Amino acid sequence: MNGAYQLVPLADAEPGMVLGEMLRDGNGNVLLAQGVVLSEGMLASLARHGVELLPILAAGRPEPVVDPARVQDRLDRVFRKHERGNHGDWASNILRQYIEDYRLGREVQR
Length: 110
What we know:
The chain is of the alpha+beta class. It has helices at residues 40-48, 68-78, 90-104; strands spanning 5-9, 23-24, 30-32, 53-57.
């Protein structure tokens, strides 16, 4: 999880926010791991440890842009020995369809 994060004062932090990097105390001890979803109890505990700022994962990061043509080109290369639509090779067709649906973010049709 190497995402952009912003430092948020502990007073402004809310349950449900996600840590953007590992949180350590003044002695270097790990308090919370990167990617932890904060709870009310965690926030109270951090206040007792004297934590003032939290590296919160930035919300609203743009989703990566998927180029359908590039996905198809890559799948054509991976499945080059398996002709698309060949009914005799049903397992490869199903696998290709699942990978294509996943890469393009489509709902899987069962």
